[in-house]
Design goal:
This protein is α/β, with parallel strands linked by helices. It has a single domain, classed as TIM Barrel. The chain has an eight-stranded parallel sheet with strand order 1-2-3-4-5-6-7-8, with helices on both faces. The longest helix has 18 residues. Helices cover 47% and strands 15% of the residues. One of its GO terms (molecular function) is hydrolase activity.
């Protein structure tokens, strides 16, 4: 398989984890932002997480520098545009970008201005490249519950205009879902689709609760359903798509080595898996690279790839017209 030329779909990609190192230096100079160095190689060392992180929290430390330069309308627009440009170069036809608006208001931008700026970058890239993008708003589990209500309310005006879903992200503690039942319920009422980071760090029951308590239609990662029979069953029976990110999962120690990643076992058992980058810069990866990892480790066939592609089409939070176009790319 020529993975670079195959059409691709990405459902789990963080904006702040996918910023070009060169862009960080450029924005820092233009906007007078203090960063540790302007040396590109040193910046890369600070941004890219090693394959041997001790845990998820060590991986998350790599986001501090990118977020520091994502505090203006222009920087947010530019970074969103460049992400879609990079994705389009490897034949990604559709991408859902996620980010947490509350991490980008340090210089007094409103939440609405933050969201609009990212959408502007996405729309600009759509006009120039053969790619379609939508936006997922992430609420932070390490912030008070009222901040999730704030994002749900302020993002509502952008539904149907590029915003498609709500997400819960950041460090994963056992039982987090119960705290967020009400804001996610409100989001569903307004028309947001729901994807939840869960089961990334050894707590399979969180996946079960994300589906039962929050109405999750997709799960970010979901590695540890293998250790919770009820979570495994509900994901399989309800056709909940798992947004799996092989390299990131090894870096955060959700999985120890690539060959032990459960993605292919899940796929063979009829669970709807999808392949994603998570963070293109922090994980120093592309979607072609992620597909290559899976292809080499598990000897997947073209038919396997097509099924995973179709899983991504059906699980995407987009309209039927776009889904039909995406199916046609591979048919």
């Amino acid at each position: 398989m020529d993975l670079l030329t195959l059409p691709k779909i990405e459902l789990h990609c963080h904006l702040d984890g996918s910023v070009r190192p060169e862009t960080i230096i450029d924005i820092a100079i233009q906007e007078g932002i203090s960063i540790p160095t302007n040396d590109i190689e040193l910046i890369k060392d600070m941004l890219i997480a090693p394959l041997e992180c001790k845990c998820l929290d060590e991986y998350l430390e790599r986001f501090v520098i990118p977020i520091s330069v994502m505090q203006s309308k222009e920087s947010l627009r530019r970074i969103a545009y460049e992400l879609l440009e990079d994705a389009a170069k490897e034949n990604v036809k559709y991408i859902e970008v996620r980010f947490a608006p509350l991490l980008h208001i340090e210089k007094e931008l409103s939440v609405e201005e933050v969201i609009e700026s990212v959408l502007n970058g996405i729309k600009e890239a759509e006009e120039k490249f053969d790619i379609k993008g939508n936006l997922i708003l992430s609420c932070m589990r390490n912030m008070p519950v009222n901040t999730a209500f704030d994002i749900v309310e302020k993002g509502k005006k952008f539904l149907g205009k590029g915003v498609v879903a709500i997400d819960l992200a950041s460090s994963e503690n056992e039982g987090f879902c119960e705290r967020f039942i009400e804001p996610i319920k409100l989001a569903r009422k307004y028309g947001y689709r729901v994807t939840i980071h869960a089961g990334e760090t050894g707590i399979g029951k969180n996946v079960l609760e994300a589906v039962e308590l929050l109405g999750a239609e997709r799960i970010g990662h979901g590695i540890y359903i293998k250790d919770c029979a009820e979570a495994y069953k509900i994901v399989k029976d309800k056709g909940i798509a798992l947004e799996m990110c092989p390299k990131s999962n090894v870096q955060t120690k959700a999985v120890d080595i690539f060959s032990n990643h459960p993605i292919y076992d899940y796929h063979r058992d009829g669970i709807k898996v999808t392949i994603n980058t998570d963070n293109r810069t922090v994980s120093d990866t592309t979607l072609s690279n992620e597909c290559d990892i899976v292809s080499k480790e598990f000897s997947i066939t073209y038919e396997d790839y097509k099924q995973i592609y179709y899983n991504s089409v059906e699980a995407s939070f987009t309209d039927e017209e776009t889904k039909k176009k995406l199916r046609n790319y591979i048919e």
